[in-house]
Amino acid sequence: MDICVLYAFLPVQYMSHMEKPVPSGQDKAGQSITANMQSAAQPKIRPAIAQKYPGGVSVLPAWADQGVLITLLFILGTVSCTLFLAVNGLYSASDDVIELTPTNFNKEVIQSESLWLVEFYAPWCGHCQRLTPEWKKAATALKGVVKVGAVDADKHQSLGGQYGVRGFPTIKIFGANKNKAEDYQGGRTSDAIVDAALSALRSLVKDRLSGRSGGYSSGKQSRESGGGDKKDVIELTDDSFDKNVINSDDVWMVEFYAPWCGHCKNLEPEWAAAATEVKEQTKGKVKLAAVDATVNQVLASRYGIRGFPTIKIFQKGEDPVDYDGGRTRSDIIARALDLFSDNAPPPELLEIISEDVLKSTCDAHQLCIISVLPHILDTGASGRNSYLDVMLKMAEKYKKKMWGWLWTEAGAQSDLESSLGIGGFGYPAMAAVNARKMKFALLKGSFSEQGINEFLRELSVGRGSTAPVGGGAFPKIHSVEPWDGKDGELPVEDDIDLSDVDLDDWDKDEL
């Protein structure tokens, strides 16, 4: 019989076995007894707590009536039930929830092709106990579709520590990449759990359709065997650190890790993905590296590494500082680009003198800012330079955006002007072009620091109207001579010889 049911049943059994009272003046043998001894009509358990008073009379304390005893038994049952659950866990073999341990976890979960939802719990945890019936219902509903498991992380602390479990219950989703479990942040009802499982399953199927496996088929993970996805993370040692980092003009973000650390394993794919993108966007000026602090203990001691992972930022001539930002790919990239832009010169302002200049600039940046300036004869060198100065100030102000900056003279690239709708507002004009989407936005305010700043600020937050580039692609770009920085000169007109012209004939009428 279930221990909880047994203790709930005990008070009823107790009441049914109480001795019945005997008639006044007789004992069970029919012998006369005093009225004071009628206390023998109490249950058999009563003498065990009776107090002896002079004269040999046994009297129960006032608290020891039947109601209190029954209540005590209920309390005893509740405590015993809780202790039983704490010793024996929250799930049994008859449930659809699969009990996981350090012995079977790798085989069942890591090496599995299935999607897994795993709860890390402690039997004494009240929240875990309340989740149990919902978790069981979800497991039954998902049977044969998604695997649902549970780990007693109080008993198997090493397994909980491997996945960074710090509170209970913690639920993790093991999808295509079993070495990169995702935290479940949804509701604690069976409906919410099932919905999250099905959503994760759809993502897994889409990844497979697109040919992305998302993980290691062997279920193993190491820094050395990660393949191409970690090619841009530079492994550093006690011997190579100073040469590569301390003596470098570049910015370095260095992760100190331990191979057994669960948080380090979770960070590894994010760090690797960020390394590749940062290398591309900063042209290698910001580098992401990793140090195995359990092997390279000289470095770990030098920089006071006490926990894993620890990330430090190294810049030439400055003391290293701790990175305290988020641990996602986007967080790491954002910090790296901030570091790059803080140390980077302002972007180049290039004249569009060939097709290569336009394409290389716009293809390499998220946006390219193209200005069409008035003809040199209309402004002179000083007027043109004033426009270029405004553009350079804006390029400096927005250099963290990593945009490309271009200009051309009115009429020099008329097909490009037409494809960007330039001309209706006069010159100078400005367009921001996304070459990947072939869309652009036009400056409709003044060509001034304030007007351009408002225009670019709106673009930065995703506002402002856009239109497709005419023809869906950049038009043909004409090769032109670059501006020499001088004032323009009017074209020299050819002299006309009028000596052979009979001016007298001009007075005659012609039919």
TrEMBL record:
Pfam families: Thioredoxin. Residues 210-233, 472-511 are annotated as: Disordered. Keywords: Disulfide bond, Endoplasmic reticulum, Isomerase, Redox-active center, Repeat, Signal. Residues 221-233, 478-489 have a biased composition (Basic and acidic residues). Gene3D superfamilies: Glutaredoxin. GO terms for biological process: response to endoplasmic reticulum stress. It catalyses: Catalyzes the rearrangement of -S-S- bonds in proteins. Residues 490-511 have a biased composition (Acidic residues). The keyword 4Fe-4S does not apply. One of its GO terms (cellular component) is endoplasmic reticulum lumen. One of its GO terms (molecular function) is protein-disulfide reductase activity. Residues 89-203, 225-358 form the Thioredoxin domain. Belongs to the protein disulfide isomerase family. May function as a chaperone that inhibits aggregation of misfolded proteins. Negatively regulates the unfolded protein response (UPR) through binding to UPR sensors such as ERN1, which in turn inactivates ERN1 signaling. May also regulate the UPR via the EIF2AK3 UPR sensor. Plays a role in platelet aggregation and activation by agonists such as convulxin, collagen and thrombin. NCBIfam families: pdi_dom. This is Protein disulfide-isomerase A6.
